[in-house]
Specification:
Layout: H1 4-19, H2 24-40, H3 43-58, H4 65-78, H5 81-92, H6 99-115, H7 118-135, H8 140-151, H9 153-156, H10 161-170, H11 174-180, H12 182-202, H13 215-223, H14 232-254, H15 260-277, H16 282-316, H17 318-327, H18 333-348, H19 353-370, H20 375-389, H21 397-405, H22 414-437, H23 440-454
Helix pairs in contact: 1-2, 2-3, 2-16, 3-16, 4-6, 4-15, 4-16, 5-6, 5-14, 6-7, 6-8, 6-12, 7-8, 7-21, 8-21, 8-22, 10-19, 11-23, 12-22, 14-15, 16-19, 17-19, 18-19, 18-20, 19-20, 20-22, 21-22
Length: about 450
Amino acid sequence: MFEPTQMIVLVGVLLALVFSGIHIAVSLGITSMLGIYLMTEQMDTVLSFASNTAYEALRDYVFAVIPLFMLMGEFLAKCGAASDLFTLINRLTRRLPGRLGIATVLANAVFAFVTGVSIAAAAAFSKIAYPEMRKHGYERKFSLGCIAGSACLGMLIPPSVLMIVWGVLTELAIGKLFIAGIIPGFIVVTLYIAYILWVAYREPHRVGEGEHLPQAQQLARATHAGGEDKDLKTIFMSTVGILILVMLVLGGIWLGVFTPTEGAGVGATLALVLALLRGMKMDEMRDAILSVGKTSAPLLLLLVTAQLYSRVLSMTGVTGATKEFFLGSGLSPYVILALMVLVWFILGCIIDSISIILLTVPVFGPLAVALGFDPIAFAIIGIIAIETGLLTPPFGILVFTVKAAVTDEKNLSTGEIFKGSIPYWIMLLIAILALVFYPQVATWLPNLGNAVSVS
């Protein structure tokens, strides 16, 4: 068993490596092997433990979920499905004030069902939605904040990469996590739309409405129709295909027809068929496959080292010591949960979402269960909190992604995007509070799915 000083050394080395810029996978691997060595003082045991953990992790076919779902999203992104979604929703909401903002949120919500990556959504809709918003006289700060805020839906609405990583680390059923994110996702979408409508009614000039727009913006608003030149039938069929794909994949997982891994395989195959029907070329198919390989291979390495790290924490007593410390502190469970959320907010300013999960969940997960929180609801709370961190200054990654994607804007500062994102940050915080006090929001659908599959 570790001594307290050795536990401090283990955690301190990990944090020092991460914040010095060393890749998270390397940091986790080095720290894990150091922990085994301090416990056994035998290098052969360290190498044997590391190799056995890697073998057991990689032979688990659940790891195929990540590249297959990424491939599904990549095929649909390459064939222009995101642009079609935005155009169709834009047309359907033409009578609503702030329709382009609403279209951005709804298109992000639907596209989140096939991508699972927030940064990809932020980059894509910066290119698709932002030019249309500006043409229609939308305020720059409002437009960019809307895109950055709605991109968070990519990690909350299934199939989310964060949910897969969380499930692998905690051994929670990935299918249950997928289904648990649906209702909270729609709650966040509703809060976003309510805010956009409120702005449209209170400050119509910010969404291209009213008589006080500059003449050039009024002319642009009159002459641009947000994709009106596209064939409506083609756009409609493309969107229907995506919706059918989503319902087949998530419905099959929810009803127990197939596992998440099998569902990912079905989704990737159907996405390829849809992409080919929309005219995707062989070069684009090859680029999609290579892109997924480049993205998922490092992620799988991360998961291997994360499992090694999680085992070491358990064996050395760090997890148990942390749990005992907080349980014996006299703090209420809600105060401890608030501290965990605060840690996620702070880390979200500095490092990426997956790294945050790998660093914290092996400790926070068992602690939350010991405090009496439902593990499924806690997972959704954690994912929203981590995504909220991506909008938190000074280093919110989604904000920097949007800024990098909007290359034509001059004198654009990250501070302006952060200001535009604040209302969406608040909406995410409201969603976290709702889940804390009403965990059934996250657990109802998974429990219902269990009842349906049993019957």
